[in-house]
């Protein structure tokens, strides 16, 4: 399933305006609370993403696919936070994802068990967002995630709930279970794991163009 246009500016790199011809799509299904996702994304963001607009000449595009693993209790909140950033400042979404992955251990079960939902949102901002991006205020960030009081019990979610549903539906449709899962031009590549050397990924991607 193609990336909904709403997310082109945030989740696709290089962004569509830099892609002038046919492009090979690498979908990356990741979970912010999954240590294997963090290992892969940190490595790729530092060592592969820079090549996309230079050595790969925009012929390969990476698409970040939010995929919540429900056995990680904080996963949903971390993904909501990232999608809030995508709404507030789309071009900073990938950097926000990088910051979340680098600080993943601060959101493990042992570190968040005694915190409320809103305390976890606060922690995400204080650790990952605020120190790295002064343009996104805590007030604007929390507003995207706030659950408003209603006269009757409500389960309608917040400003990013529909975005969570979109990515969940896409992942289920494509039969994704574990994270990370990599699709190249729509086909799962089970040979790519979090520990796969960058050199091996580089060879595989260069063969596409």
Automatic annotation (TrEMBL):
Domain Thioredoxin-like fold, residue spans:
25-188
Under InterPro entries, the record lists: Thioredoxin-like_fold (IPR012336), Thioredoxin-like_sf (IPR036249)
SUPFAM superfamilies per UniProt? Thioredoxin-like
> Cross-referenced PANTHER family, in alphabetical order?
ACR183CP, OS09G0542200 PROTEIN
**What is this protein identified as?**
Thioredoxin-like fold domain-containing protein
Please give the organism: Cyberlindnera fabianii
Q: According to the entry, what is the taxonomic lineage of the organism?
A: Eukaryota, Fungi, Dikarya, Ascomycota, Saccharomycotina
């Amino acid at each position: 399933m193609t990336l909904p246009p709403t997310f082109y500016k945030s989740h696709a790199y290089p962004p569509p305006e830099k892609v002038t011809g046919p492009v090979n799509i690498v979908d990356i299904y990741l979970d912010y609370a999954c240590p294997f996702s963090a290992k892969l994304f940190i490595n790729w963001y530092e060592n592969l993403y820079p090549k996309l607009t230079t050595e790969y000449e925009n012929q390969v595009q990476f698409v970040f696919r939010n995929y919540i693993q429900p056995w990680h209790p904080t996963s949903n909140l971390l993904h909501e936070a990232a999608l809030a950033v995508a709404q507030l400042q789309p071009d900073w979404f990938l950097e926000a994802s990088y910051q979340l992955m680098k600080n993943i251990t601060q959101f493990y079960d042992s570190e968040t068990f005694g915190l409320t939902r809103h305390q976890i949102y606060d922690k995400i901002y204080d650790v990952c967002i605020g120190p790295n991006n002064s343009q996104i205020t805590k007030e604007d960030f929390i507003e995207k995630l706030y659950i408003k009081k209603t006269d009757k019990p409500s389960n309608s979610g917040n400003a990013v709930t529909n975005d969570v549903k979109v990515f969940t539906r896409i992942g289920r449709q494509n039969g994704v279970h574990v994270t990370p899962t990599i699709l190249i031009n729509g086909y799962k590549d089970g040979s790519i794991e979090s520990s796969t050397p960058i050199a091996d990924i580089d060879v595989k991607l260069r063969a596409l163009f």
